[in-house]
Write a structure and sequence with these properties.
By secondary structure, the chain is of the alpha+beta class. The protein has ten helices and 13 strands.
Length: about 350
Amino acid sequence: MTFKNKNFESILKEIFKFVIEKYYQVPIDDRYKIFVHKKTSGVDSDVYLCKAYIRAMTPVCLYAKHGKDYEVLTKKEYDLMLSLWVKHYQKEKYLCIPKPIYYSQDANILFTERIDGITLAKFLHYKAAPICWHIFHRKIMEHVKRAAIWLKSFHTITRQPIKLSLESALENDLESLHQHQSACLSKELFEQSLSKLYKLAKNLNLLLHYKTGRHGDYSIDNIIVSHEKTSAIDFAQFNYGTPLYDVAKFMVLLDIYGNFIYHNTNFFRSLATVFLTTYNESNRIVSFSEDDVKIYKPIILLHELKWTELFEQELPSKNPFLRYTIYRINKYAIKELKNFIGK
């Protein structure tokens, strides 16, 4: 395919048309209609909903993820999802991932099936207001438990025959943090946080546990729930290491969302406890305590400070509410890091 002198929407429609003809074996003629709508815009990628109405057929709906700068990461995500789909998720009915359909190397676009449902973040937005959370308490808890079961299953599927201590896992994750210093964090606080984490790692004496694949960005924004299914999306940050990272990230972000977005702190902390308890039940890999999660909390906060900084650069200047929310989250993270080092 050649895309010279074409705008991105035209390119996306052209590739979408090719995908329909090749993978759905539907000939495209003048009676079809194609619509493209941007759903989300992130730091390193944009996601579009592509929909085609073809005669009397059910509309073909796919998500298209366009990597802005990181072609290698988008191709890596496609290869990973394809491997997971073929080996594990193709016949799975309740714990799912989107089926990868096609990757265009020329345009750096990944097409996946559209999964029915809404993100857990949106579900909580609709149901977790203090005035009504008790009405939907059982349903909210059920979705959080299913998110824990999905993650436990994912860690089991991607488990490697390698055991590591939390000390070595922590040290490995600390090495990557040297590339993630946020501009809103002073060099002194950053270095003191890392220094204390290194000291803490050397004093840990936990049992060995298996190294697993890690989603890398497991949060309520990347979990889609419906009546029966629970699915995870966005595997761009997949890597291998201790599964505690995914567990801690979900729980720390729940705490942040409860504080600054949903303003229902106690309820969200109870959701985090339910998540950890469910994850630990009948877990053949490892069980983590809340103290283990606290060890990883500073690492999650340091990562989030960098991502919120990058995300803020992408925000339109006319979005003061979101900018203020990010400011408050960053302020909270810095305060927690200061508490961690005893400052």
